[in-house]
Amino acid sequence: MSAEAIADAAIGAPLLEARGVTLQYKTRQHLVTATWRVSFDVFSGDRFILLGPSGCGKSSLLKAIGGYIQPVEGAFRLAGSEVHGPGPDRMMVFQEFDQLFAWKTVVDNVAFPLVMAGRARPKEARERALHYLEKVNLTKFRDSYPHMLSGGMKQRVAIARAMAMEPAVLLMDEPFAALDALTRRRMQDELLELWDTTRFTVLFVTHSIEEAIVVGSRILLLSPHPGRVRAELNCAAYDHEHEGSAAFTALQRRIHHMLFEERQPGGDHE
Known about the structure:
Blueprint: H1 3-11, E1 16-26, E2 31-42, E3 47-51, H2 58-65, E4 73-78, E5 81-82, E6 90-93, H3 106-116, H4 122-135, H5 151-164, E7 169-173, H6 181-198, E8 202-206, H7 209-215, E9 218-222, E10 229-234, H8 246-260, E11 268-269
Parallel strand pairs: 3-8, 3-9, 6-7, 7-8, 10-11
Antiparallel strand pairs: 1-2, 1-4, 4-5, 9-10
Helix pairs in contact: 3-4, 3-5, 4-5
């Protein structure tokens, strides 16, 4: 996808559109409907959260946006072009720590996809890798190997690797879920600090209401299986609210009520 197409989307049109997306997958016994006619818009610079209980299709939506699952109904469009398969304009970060090549150094892990995708020659790829390692405060670990890093550091390398590709959208599937509570909170802060410097577009999957409010500027609430849009909330005003404040706690309670206590199909927007 050209930089011009992405820039045009940034002017006012949605960068990413989901239109009536129904996703299904097969098990040995059943055909499972993961989502049902889900629609939403993501704009350039959004920190867009997909939030809902287990089994509501959050990760399936992210994989479909990445091009790994094809909708049985509806479509995704990125800067006006329909998504038909994976591409370097959409990079994913998963929660597992084994995303890195054990035999490559940190800087080589970050540079490798750039070279393989033909996005940069080795020298340029290394320079770009070092640039993004600096962004995630890992420059001094550039020559280390993955087994020498903590879980949080490995996730920062994975984020740097994805960012180095300079995708239109960064897709993050519960990237901090496997971390301990303190490391998880620090990683949330570091992600926000990185966003402040580059204003990249991120889709972030979580089942934690607290994390959704901390990380997100907009939250899409999905109903229990199959996932339908329950509501969409703008939470950018809570960027500077402290966890435990009255406003933060009130929003937590409101989201919990909308997800688990309201029974009618969603579709409400703010």
